[in-house]
Fold each of these.
Amino acid sequence: MAEKASADVGLIGLAVMGQNLALNMADHGFKVAVFNRTTRVMKEFIAANPDTPGGLVGCENLSELVAAAKKPRKIVILVKAGPAVDTVTKQLIEAGAEKDDLIVDCGNSQWTDTIRREKEFSDRCRFFGSGVSGGETGARFGPSLMPGGAADAWKHLEPIWNAIAAKVDAETGKPIETAKPGRPVKGGVPCSAYIGENGAGHYVKMVHNGIEYIDMQLISEAYFLLRNLLHVEPEELSQIFARWNEGDLDSYLIEITADILKQRDPDHPDAFLVDYVLDTAQQKGTGKWTSINALDMGIPANSIAEAVFARCLSALKVEREAASQHLIGPEYQYNGDRNELVNAVHDALYCSKICAYAQGFQLMRAAETEYKWKLDLASIASIWRGGCIIRARFLQRITAAYARDPQLVNLLLDPYFKEQIQRNQTRWRSVVALAAQAGIAAPAFMSALAYHDGYRSAQLPANLLQAQRDYFGAHTYERIDQPRGVSFHLDWSKPDRRQIKITDSH
Ligand code: NBP
């Protein structure tokens, strides 16, 4: 039976994320009241963790959980994103949660659902949404946290979020050593910062995941290019990635890539496991949401979308195998310098990564207007430096870029990133050209370069495109010798070719 109102926080949903987050909170001295739909899971969890610094209180129903939590209650939900979040929130309200209480959805909910829920439950509780990144280990020992909701609710959550988040060194931005059970990290800057109103936290978590998709795709393409052009074994590639992890590309994803590539297959000890993993990637949807949102807002996030489509293409394994017998690519043998190619792929990866992150940050910039948020992009980059899947040395650079100029129009225009691309673009272009020549699919490298070249072009072929639209659909065009907003239509196929002025908004 639960004690009376002694718990600092309540937590609902004791699957992987819930159990680990509860233990993380308890390690930091917070008393956590826990509930799970299947009571057995809760009992086993309590039995397995009898001595946590803060203490765990097992609750068999939601009324017990509500009674156990100190007011204003802070109740974290970690159930499957979707209708279960609404169900649990309503059940909590029925069980006695009050208007001042915070119900904090830490699942991967769609930000639009969080906006809707905050409004829908506003007279019954303070509904809050927080992105949590870092998977199981992050939840246990320090995730990156992206909280969004009412600012007056945040102040109640802030001490807990700051305590349980991953920590980075204040000067270097590097993650501080990982915590151990019962021994949390002391000091450092927490990877948690208030993001903004209603769904802002879940939105930023979604963009984080979209960036994660493209980051993983770029790394996979770098591996694939080197593997196919140099015909090297995964173990040698592992050493290359490990070396890259000591420089500008230093990141969690490069680190685990180096580790993956050197692992032998348990069933074939002479071979490498990566060669036995089927080349079809699955997805849960957050990359797709990011791409749909980019399309909805009209923001070019082509590389993020390309990463989603690359997974879709990978899933067509049977079709691809059949097509490979019919659609023959070029015969190509790389005879150049091997080290030069390794360095070129490194630079291509870095330049492409800059473009991919530029797209993600542009999305957040546009979302500020779309959803009336005030997003601090430097702060967002800073909380991704530790705890999350995309944590990287590189994010210290992005933090610095937006701290230098909070109004920065595009990351590509920051002096550091501008100089990096300037310096490395010849090799980036040579890798993309090589991929095309050799017939090796490298959609993310190519789309990132296309983004860069498109963004830096004062003139694009959209003049012809818009003329085509006017030709067949009378969609009008603007002229370079007239003020913006003044539109024209031409009777393109008629003999007199009359140009009509359509609007003048000035
Ligand atoms: P799941 O997404 O598998 O959620 C299932 C848990 O919710 C079970 O413990 C289940 O209880 C409980 N639950 C309760 Br309580 N009420 C429920 C209801 N009405 N309907 C369905 N389930 C209910 O857990 P997870 O993998 O820990 O993920 C939790 C959230 O965190 C998800 O939104 C996920 O997307 C997000 N997330 C996951 C990761 C990750 O790496 N796994 C990372 C970041 C975010 P039961 O025992 O009775 O079935």
Note: Residues 12-18, 36-38, 41, 78-81, 84, 87-88, 107-108, 132, 135-136 surround NBP (CB under 6 Å).
Amino acid sequence: MTHDVWTAMDDRKMEFGGGAPVESETPYRHWKRRRDDNDVEWIILDKADSRVNVLSAEVLMELLNLLEEVADARPRGLVLRSGKPKGFTVGADVSEFKGMTSLAEVENKVRRAHAVADMLDKFPAVTAAVIHGMCLGGGLELSLCCDHRIALPDAALGFPEVKLGLHPGMGGTFRSVRLIDPVDAMTMMLTGKNKTARQALKSGLVDAVVEERHVAAAVRAALSDELKNKRRGMKGAAMNTGPMRRMAANKMRTKTREKADPDHYPAPYALIDLWEAHGGDPKAMQKAEIASFSNLLIGDTAQNLVRLFFLRDKMKGLGYGDPAILHVHVIGAGAMGGDIAAWCAYKGFQTTLFDVDLNALGGAVARAASLFGKKCDTDAEARDALDRLIPDPTGDGVPRADLVIEAVPENHDLKVKIYGETEPRMKAGAILATNTSSIRLETLRESLRRPDRFVGLHFFNPVAKMHLVEVVDHDGAAEDALAAARAFVVAIDRLPAPVRSAPGFLVNRALMPYLLEALLMMDEGIAPETIDRAAEDFGMPMGPIILADKVGLGICVDVAGVLRDSLDEPIPDIPDWVNQKVEDGHLGEKSEKGLYVYEDGKPKKNPEAPDPDPETADRLILPMVNACVRLLREGVTDDPEIVDGAMVFGTGFAPFRGGPVQYAQKRGVAEVRETLSRLADRHGERFQPDEGWDRLEGGS
Ligand code: NAD
């Protein structure tokens, strides 16, 4: 049965000019066309077999043919619209970017896309794009080829390419700076931030914002040229001069450098160069855009970021389906439990929160209110979220909950006692989850009646920022309970990493050698600033010393202790002076004293600290990579992609390097192994390369 976009659009009351279709069927898989009563041609993008429109090579080729055909029919005007309820288009088909290595091949592909855009730009009649929902990347670039853009109030327009290590590559660089204030256009491309319909109207990116019922009238006005948004004014014209652009470009470079290292993320800098050199000359800028985009696309940064884009999808796919969870009950309203409950309520779940300490409950609700205030678009939404979060000092939520999450202090006996009191009150089939970060689930489930309904849901701190949740298995867990737990993680907009119960699970186990090595370096007299800089230069979001202070030295020492007691591998002792700091209550950022001293929440750093030597980064990073290889060998997960995803989304491991396993493979497994052996000779057995490297060697 063919999908009838016209009926679907009628059902959704979408405007397309009225009149009978000239052709109900076209030879195209992804496009539909219809001529309205005013002799205006409406072409509708409705990508086959896809919930959203993406601009694959096939979609663009069809558009080229369609435009030629429509031009021959000499319409009075042309309207471009989407047939998908979700929106206009989300941009390029990113899967076509994967694994591209040949510059010539990429340039050819990009040139073909430009030919389509140019054809729309030069179409021999007035053109308009009608935009609803997401209009991103290539979608926005196509709309920029039209003479007019009419947005619906729900439209969101943006250039997200920079998040994939790219800049616009289908004419967006020169068409955007030509249309609106170039600094505004450059900011959109450099930050990847979307504009709402209203913001787009204000900046001149669209000519009008109308409700659906006024679309046909707006199109008529546009095609008769009554609709013109002339917001660009003098500033845009001034920016066409070289010296003004040079000044503005330098400012942009300085600002960009605060966020991204040019060696790690070259795209924004390439875009600034492009505009500085050619901003006044669209033809030259188009030529340079093709070269620059192609060059970026075959580079390591873009390829790794594209890979992570799909890894995110893959992890979401692990939580496919309905978790059948409506009510969540959280036990423990401390740093983690309080924030987990708040996040669940924010994401639409009825949530009860229990704690023996009423102050903890009060504190958690106050933190939740502040979170909702920041995250929710309207006061009404924030109020609704707060209504869903119910402080429950008597634990009445337990029998009603489909999922109970325990987040009390990291103490085996306390947790087991709470399970003994809670499990008999839970409804049949409900899931009991623990947020433990280091206790083996096998030892926690021993006295449970239904160990098959028991799983680990290991959230990371701060819950509202960290996207990863480890979903922890154990030898007695039922697959449907684990599947529901994974689906729940996705339902609260987090990424599940399925892991086997093992000391430290995945992320903490891999992170610990990195933090410990940093402490040993400090013990050797290396300045904390030098150590942190080595990690930051590698691309970590923060150095290990500052991270240890953020996590809290007490927690670091505890987790290291648990790992040392339960693992059969050489884990060095924590230096005495660190233990002393913990005893003295100098736990890190929160107590204003830790490895750094803090003033107004900021660490006091010595600007004179020497630069790190080349070995420092290897000493920090390679033990973490070695631990990842060991985890894989031991089967904590058997998927290297999950290791990479967990480390990037759970710790911020340099995203442009694609994750620790990808990094090792790119650098060369043999070389990494040799370096580890050299470090082992020099610094100790803890660097000994794991046997698991054998399996990676030669792998891709
Ligand atoms: P926390 O000390 O901040 O909070 C624990 C809360 O549990 C307190 O409010 C306390 O009053 C409450 N509590 C104690 N006994 C209770 C009982 N019998 N019934 C109900 N509530 C009780 O601890 P946290 O940092 O939130 O850690 C909680 C769990 O999460 C631990 O297992 C920890 O390992 C894990 N975890 C912590 C972090 C982190 O960074 N803090 C990260 C991941 C996982």
Note: The longest helix spans residues 614-634.
Amino acid sequence: MTIELRKSVSTRTTPITLVDRTSLPAVAARLPAATQRWLRSIDFVGAADRHVLLPDEQGQMAQVLAGIGDIDDPFALAALPGDLPPGDYRLSDDGLALDPAIAAHSWHMGSYAFDRYKPRRRTTARLLLPSGATARRGLAIAEALTLARDLINTPAEHLGPQELAGAAQALAKAHGARFKQIVSDELLKKNFPAIHAVGRASVRAPRLIELQWGKPSHPRVSIVGKGVCFDSGGLDIKGADGMRLMKKDMGGAANALGLAAMVMALKLPLRLQVLIPAVENAIAGNAYRPGDVLPTRAGLQIEIGNTDAEGRVILSDALAYAAESTPELIIDLATLTGAARIALGPQLPALFCRDMRTARTLVDLGLELQDPLWHMPLWAPYKAGIESSVGDIVNTGRNAMAGAINAALFLEYFVPPDQDWLHVDLFGWNDAPRAGRPVGGEAQTIRTLLAYLEQRFAGPAARG
Ligand code: BES
Ligand code: MN
Ligand code: ZN
């Protein structure tokens, strides 16, 4: 483990003193004159994500001075664990005081590497923190984000629908949740025809994964995640560039499991349902085709304009099923459209919801927690653009415009009008590295959604 919560932390560990540009002079003034000259000569001024190792007179490591830009940054310490020499560290009392949740969270995230195939080049430094509810909360959240990243980073060869179900089952077991899955032709018998149609061309059987957790007396919340373990595009096959990252097309499912892990670890007073339609969008003689008209659980007939718009097709059955238990809230998370990425780029997932006030609350929370999302409209007049002449609706728009809105409007058909619902269209990937956020799979919006669930269902007391 790269972080440990202890009742008491030994003073034999190396202290890390947190400084910023304002507090550095006072800290430096307490150091030997030679050290002060050294800090000036290397131009260490306490800037964010820069640190300096200081020796004692015997040449042993005495302490670390680490620059912090924003004390509320959930990635405040993230640059340290990979850079510091291996060993045990603690936060010194001389420096800026960091919220233990942020300390635990940022250190754990800064230690992240996807090392399933390629071992780490060196051991990461270990932080010893006094244990307490706040530190435990920060760590629980970081562990959930790590789960989501690992699932996204795992190649499709090792994470098909069955392995995704295995990950959900393991999570259920860890938290005493119930796990169920409906596999292959059972999907037809139990009336999930759209999930079956998209997944039937793969030798890896499609399925609907379901977790249930929490007391029956608590408010119901359903979290739905798009679980396309690989998106080749189907018969409307993607080009090489477009297909390259499509192991991450289960990013919605990974984030749904990450959010569920947080809810369960922090024991929110919810009755949670997680639904993951898990498929591989593959090509074979029995693949669904452009022009096909497919029945859905909700009864609507959907015309396939393009087999690469598969996410909304499988989500239609999952959303219809989620609505059947009339939960207080349905949240769906999906790597649904390239159009959302064109509009907002990799760092800003698109949020769609019917209620403007809820959208504003979520956008504000996202900015505050540095886990942003941005509101886009369910622009009703564009529904005309997804009407079908042979079925009820078509899974592509009339043209290339407003692709993310078209997809969201398509989903909206499967959510009853009075059902509270949030739809998040996300990238699930860091395309450029930042401290604690290496290139690769990324959890997005789930810290914000956790805070929203706490605010709405657990009251302010539970947030701490
Ligand atoms: N999984 C993709 C969307 C995607 C692509 C997300 C790249 C993130 C990065 C989705 O299944 C898809 O292929 N959507 C098509 C829909 C189109 C055919 C209407 C798209 O966005 O191009
Ligand atoms: Mn696709
Ligand atoms: Zn897809």
Note: The radius of gyration is 24 Å.
